[in-house]
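=== Structural record ===
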Amino acid sequence: RFFVDWFVAARADKADFSRFERAMGGGFGMVAPDGKVLDRDAVVDHVRSSRASCDDGFTISIEDIRPGWQDADTIVVFYVEAQLRAGKHSRRQSSAVFTTSSSAPNGVEWRHLHETWLQMPEH
C-alpha cells in the first residue's frame, strides 16, 4: 500500500516515508529484476526520488505468497509482484527476508529483497 500511495501523484501526500525507512533494516540489500545489486541507501534514495511519478492507474498486487525457511526471528517469503504502470503489465518472482525488531513498524524489519522478471513491462 505504501508504494502505491507514494508513487501515485494524487495520493503521495498520504504516504509516510519515515515509516518506510524504519521498516528497511540496517544492511538491507536488493537484487533488482535486471540483476543490479542495490544497498539500502540506493533503494531508499530511489524510492524517495520516485515520489508522485505514476498516474492514478498504477497498481501493485502481491500474489502466490508462500513461506520459505524460517526460525524464531527470521522468515524468507516467496511471492509474485504484479504491477500495472502506465497501462503496461509486469510480473516479478520475489523473495524477501524479514526479521523481528521491536523498533520497526509492526515489529518487522525488511532485510533482503530479490526480484526476477517473469513478465517484463510491454513496450
